[in-house]
Amino acid sequence: MKTKGFAKHYYLMLLPGFAWLAVFGIFPMFGIVLAFEHFSPVKGMFGSDWVGLENFRYMFSLNDTKSIFVNTIFIAIMKIIANLVVPLVFALLLNELRIVVMKKWVQTIVYLPHFLSWVILGGIVLDLFSLDGPANQILHVFGIDAINFFGKASLFPFLAVGTDVWKEFGFNMIIYLAALTGINPALYEAAGIDGASRMRRIWHVTLPGVRTTASLLAVLALGNVLNAGFDQIFNLYNPLVYSSGDIIDTWVYRTGLLNMQYELATAVGLLKSVVGFILIGISYFAAYKWTNYRIF
Amino acid sequence: MRHKKKSIAIAMATLALVVSACGNSNNNNSAASDAAPSGSSSSSASAAPADPFGKYADPVTLSVGQQVDPSDTTLPAGDTPDSNQYTRYIKDNLNIDVKDAFTASPTNYNQKVSLSISSNDLPDAMIVNAQQFREMSDNGQLEDLTDAFNQYASPELKRVLADSNKRAMDTVTVDGKIMALPQAEDAGVHEMWIRQDWLDKLGLQPPKTVDDLEKVADAFVNQDPDGNGKKDTIGIAAPDSSDASKLYANFLESANNLYGFDPVFAAFDAYPGYWVKDANGNPVYGSTTPETKQALGKLAEMYSKGLIDQQISVRQDSGEPVISGQTGIFFAPWWMGYGPLTDAVKQNPKADWQAYALPLDASGQFKPHLSAPAGQFLVVRKGYKNPEAVVKLENLLLRDESKFDLSKGSIGFYPVRLALGPSDESEFTVKALQDVLAGTKKPEDFSDKPEYKLLAGDLANIKKVKTEPYDKMDIQYWNPNADLGAWTRLYSLMVGVSPFMDLEGNGVSSLIYSQTPTMESRWVNLQKLEDEAFLKIIVGAAPLDSFDKFVSDWKQQGGDQITSEVAEAIK
């Protein structure tokens, strides 16, 4: 085989990806200068007046800044944990299921919500939890007074996490199922011969088998600590839950696009990116150290 | 080897797909960018005399940002937003080639315009809102229209804009120069819509005061007005989660607030969201006054009794329960026939929605807040060579709007259309309709009023949808099915406009309808503070006295500075 001709078309296939990256990933980076300017569209991105760190100073003087960072981190961390644990548990349960048809059916049904956008799901979720919706009807059966779920700031983060897990766990589960099929059946047989019960087999064979996958996903998720999910929150929140539900991205949207304060929105976005970059760096080294996984 | 061949084939196929897709989008892009800057190229030489309807000798190109409603299917096959009866009529009469630099649906139009402004990639002309107009004016992105307007505006256009809507014209005059053409707003009065049939069934009168309102709402909630044996009715509708629905209209978006509590606040002499004068004549933000606190206290009390929709601000569309017949009272502008009422009547032909200028305040008066004189502005890009072409477009529109056949493309497709009309258009129309119905005048008596462009049609249609007796407005004396389109408009006018025909002198205007410099950086956060604090008070998540904390926070986080800027601005 001639290695020379062999590699060429693979590089060609990379081209569209690089073009995408350049247009949507690299070129927009220059927009960062907005964070240090008093932006005027007529003077343009590079001609506007330079104000240094003024926008950042203003940002930290706002009472909102602290609360949106706290909300974002709180919601995001809960989502990361829940999105690791729930799919794993579900994958283990599904793996123990013996009826193959049933297993496939369940697997297909639970991952369906993943393919719907939050614009649609937001409407469904709001209806489910409305005062006369199914959730409150169930509570009513047990004699509990109706709860205005999405009007309570104390409940909002948990509803956001819960509905996000409901939407995504079926899809996240697929990775675990793949890892589970990768476990050598001989190990189960050996454990069976040694007299291990079902629970013992899960504990000593299955769980160690998916440990690498789980810890890798956990470490990689670190980079998302500042992404609490704009499309979800935006479609679910309202002023009553701002105190616990307003996140960086929704704040930037309102400030930047609706109120045309591009500089301030860019400054907050940049801060978010810098913190996110540091976390991704940490997760890269952590992934290498603990699970011996290297991206590059 | 075989595998390798296969992978090459797949690679080629993938590439082909990608390349063709790129090719397509490139073509589109270049077509769009051809259209955008072409305005200046072909036009400069054609110097027409100052004739408002003068046809250019050489074609003039005008690129516009156009709002296109995707649900509007009136265009005949072959016509596009770029080429339809209006663009052809303009081409034939004025020799102006109108091109769309961009089109956007109503929901995205504002964002599209904002992006266009911030990237300085402007069409020659477009419609913008007050904030965008101010922004463009500050940025120096606007062409001076003073000469174009003075020389080329037709006498009718001058009458409609400069005479009858003087206040609107003032808002577009910056340092003595006309920088845009304004669209005059109607007064934007919010009134009470109520189920008359429910009132009659329970033997109640329309609520005159806030205390009455509470009693009626209580009856609507607890006495089963819809007679289905279930306690499923809503006394008073509350704002929903959409942008068009707020607790009250504010000085930046001062008209067309749906399902808010504007009249309830006004009944306490409270004008939250507006800049008003305090007892000493100094400007004060209406949301920080004791009257507002009092009104909030009453609303909180009514909410806790279940008289106000419990899903305030969480519900996605408060129009839905109105349509399905669950809601008894809501507050909104006059045009509710265009809102939920057409569907409500389709659902239940007996749903008798009537409008009242109620509740009254302690002195027995109805004092609504009035909207900004102009809400939309037609602007021209700085450097466009033929600004008078835009004035001519509006001349032509005003003269000939009633001649077009709307079934061959609705009027929304007219390029950069301003809804032009005298400021008393709805009131004048209602008066004329009443006269014609009473028999004191004939439709022909109004034939000398061309600037009231829909009047002739309204007078022709009224007896089609209104049944006798002509002085009773209840739903059983209408025939919506005869012509639903005409009914929508005429019901809105006769029921919605009549209550406040004699009230305008009582209205309260905001001292200022635009932002001051500090507001530009602080307002989003102050607004958030306010929305959150007020909603929490109403639903009982915070005590009424947290209002005082809101006021001090508001002042400290920039409110004081903004107040002094407002004082400066109105000097």
Automatic annotation (TrEMBL), chain A:
GO terms for cellular component: plasma membrane. GO terms for biological process: transmembrane transport. Residues 69-283 form the ABC transmembrane type-1 domain. Its main location: membrane. Coiled coil: none annotated. It is a multi-pass membrane protein. It is found in: Cell membrane. Keywords: Cell membrane, Membrane, Transmembrane, Transmembrane helix, Transport. The chain crosses the membrane at residues 12-36, 68-93, 105-126, 169-188, 209-230, 264-287. The keyword Transferase does not apply. The keyword Transport applies. Belongs to the binding-protein-dependent transport system permease family. This is Sugar ABC transporter permease. It comes from Cohnella zeiphila.
From TrEMBL, chain B:
The keyword Transport applies. The keyword Nucleus does not apply. One of its GO terms (cellular component) is cell envelope. InterPro entries: Bact_solute-bd_prot1, SBP. It is found in: Cell envelope. PROSITE patterns: PROKAR_LIPOPROTEIN. Residues 26-51 have a biased composition (Low complexity). Keywords: Signal, Transport. Residues 1-21 form the signal peptide. Residues 65-74 have a biased composition (Polar residues). SUPFAM superfamilies: Periplasmic binding protein-like II (SSF53850). Residues 26-52, 65-86 are annotated as: Disordered. Belongs to the bacterial solute-binding protein 1 family. This is Extracellular solute-binding protein. It comes from Cohnella zeiphila.
